[in-house]
């Protein structure tokens, strides 16, 4: 099939379960493309001389090339090209905000022809690769004696482990939770990413020789210390993500009826696995039969409101201080939430939590308006004096964003330097921290961000670690028995 068929082939997305049906369960709402659908949609690609879609992708995926191969009926070759730049293509195809990345940059979208459904084709290729056995355990060309310890089994850690194991290193992943996957398992609801999709990736790493050490909080009492971890491995990668929740600071915010988004989502996902969670059973982290208010405008807020509808909430309202056009979350997720009955209170900020220390009865909101844009084009917000409203609420969920934990204190490693935002400092253009042999990648370096950026940084950090270890071996030590400064390269 030829490409450049956008003039005769209209944009079609995969089938989506209707809202009334999908809120009855936590299944993914989008179906996979059928082969004919995938090839037809891929054939719409204009094969631009300058592929803006590729520039819009944090992974710089070779999108036009694997779209062409898909259109030509060569899916295995297309998948191989997709996998060359991404260790988690079928996951990114599901959860990336393509409308803000590759698809939003598509030349067809910019010229009024509607974008190519890049994410759906990427997901289709990844799923087909697993179904047809194209994805097998990693068998390195050479086995190396050096080992790497990775702290965090989330997307950055998984991506790095994949690349490092491919290079032949011994890899051990440590994580504080009982299941591998990090936010892919416990932070993102199943209606966006079913957990078997993550498990087949983490299981593949296990089958490839990657060791998982779960339920291990580095630096915590009765757990492995950071110093012990460094002694055990030739290099360490910190890929913990950011899990410290930003909290409300309005009157009444200390009520037990106000909960953190991550606590709520982790509980919902654990219940989905069949775990017995006391705070769900007693109703504290369960939206069933309640008026739920979620404060925030990012994708985490959308995950919360859409989870609440599925738990049988009486009503679900999202409060955000700016308007829809300035919302940081994916517009696709907002649309899905609206279809599922979520009400949005735009240009509204929390002013006070109503109720008492044990229960909440509502949220007082302050109406806002946008101000004149600043030099960067960002509009500020200001109160509309005297314009307030009370929203009924039995459960208030804070989805205000995340901050890094204080790792130098938690790890008892004061040499780990942090930025003024609390993220770990790394060398410019590299992933080496201020501690020799210790690297960092993902949200713990860049702050709360997208999964696709975590994948990119995990892969790039793996390349830095490989270079560091190989340089250490090749260059002789100096008079003090330490590798020369040239040998350390990215490490110092």
Automatic annotation (TrEMBL):
Keywords: 4Fe-4S, Iron, Iron-sulfur, Metal-binding, Oxidoreductase
Gene3D superfamilies: Alpha-helical ferredoxin, FAD/NAD(P)-binding domain, NAD(P)-binding Rossmann-like Domain
Annotated FAD/NAD(P)-binding domain residues: 148-458
InterPro entries: DPD_II, FAD/NAD-bd_sf, FAD/NAD-binding_dom, GltD-like, Helical_ferredxn
Matches recorded under Pfam families: Fer4_20 (PF14691), Pyr_redox_2 (PF07992)
Protein name: Dihydropyrimidine dehydrogenase subunit A
MF terms (GO), sorted A to Z: 4 iron, 4 sulfur cluster binding; metal ion binding; oxidoreductase activity
Origin: domain of life: Bacteria
Dihydroprymidine dehydrogenase domain location: 22-133
């Amino acid at each position: 099939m030829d490409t450049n068929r956008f003039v005769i082939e209209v944009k079609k997305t995969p089938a989506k379960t209707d809202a009334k049906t999908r809120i009855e369960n936590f299944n993914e709402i989008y179906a996979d493309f059928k082969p004919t659908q995938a090839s037809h949609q891929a054939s719409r690609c204009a094969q631009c001389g300058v592929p803006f879609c590729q520039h819009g992708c944090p992974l710089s995926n070779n999108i036009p090339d694997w779209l062409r191969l898909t259109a030509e009926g060569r899916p295995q070759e297309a998948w191989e090209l997709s996998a060359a730049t991404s260790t988690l293509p079928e996951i990114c195809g599901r959860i990336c905000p393509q409308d803000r990345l590759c698809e939003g940059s598509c030349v067809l979208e910019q010229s009024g022809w509607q974008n190519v459904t890049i994410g759906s084709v990427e997901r289709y290729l990844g799923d087909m690769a697993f179904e047809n056995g194209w994805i097998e355990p990693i068998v390195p060309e050479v086995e190396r004696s050096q080992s790497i310890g990775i702290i965090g089994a989330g997307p950055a850690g998984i991506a790095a482990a994949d690349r490092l194991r491919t290079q032949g290193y011994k890899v051990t992943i440590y994580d504080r939770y009982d299941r591998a996957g990090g936010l892919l398992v416990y932070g993102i609801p199943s209606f966006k990413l079913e957990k078997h999709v993550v498990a087949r990736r983490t299981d593949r790493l296990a089958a490839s020789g990657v060791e998982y050490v779960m339920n291990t909080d580095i630096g915590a009492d009765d757990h492995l210390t950071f110093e012990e971890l460094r002694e055990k491995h030739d290099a360490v990668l910190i890929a913990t993500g950011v899990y410290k929740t930003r909290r409300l600071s309005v009157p009444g915010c200390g009520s037990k009826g106000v909960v953190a988004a991550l606590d709520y989502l982790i509980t919902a996902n654990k219940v989905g696995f069949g775990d017995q969670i006391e705070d769900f059973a007693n109703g504290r982290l369960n939206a069933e039969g309640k008026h739920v208010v979620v404060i925030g405008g990012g994708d985490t807020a959308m995950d919360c409101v859409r989870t609440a509808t599925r738990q049988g909430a009486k009503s679900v309202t999202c409060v955000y201080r700016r308007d829809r056009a300035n919302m940081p979350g994916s517009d696709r997720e907002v649309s899905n939430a609206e279809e599922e009955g979520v009400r949005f209170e735009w240009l509204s900020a929390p002013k006070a939590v109503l109720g008492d220390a044990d229960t909440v009865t509502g949220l007082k909101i302050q109406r806002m308006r946008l101000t004149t844009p600043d030099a960067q084009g960002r509009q500020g917000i200001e109160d509309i004096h005297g314009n307030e409203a009370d929203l009924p609420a039995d459960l208030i969920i804070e989805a205000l964003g995340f901050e890094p934990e204080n790792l130098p204190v938690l790890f008892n490693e004061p040499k780990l330097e942090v930025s003024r935002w609390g993220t770990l400092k790394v060398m410019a253009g590299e992933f080496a921290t201020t501690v020799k042999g210790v690297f960092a990648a993902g949200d713990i370096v860049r702050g709360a961000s997208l999964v696709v950026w975590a994948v990119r940084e995990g892969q790039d950090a793996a390349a830095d670690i490989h270079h560091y270890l190989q340089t250490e071996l090749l260059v002789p030590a100096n008079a003090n028995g330490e590798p020369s400064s040239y040998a350390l390269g990215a490490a110092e």
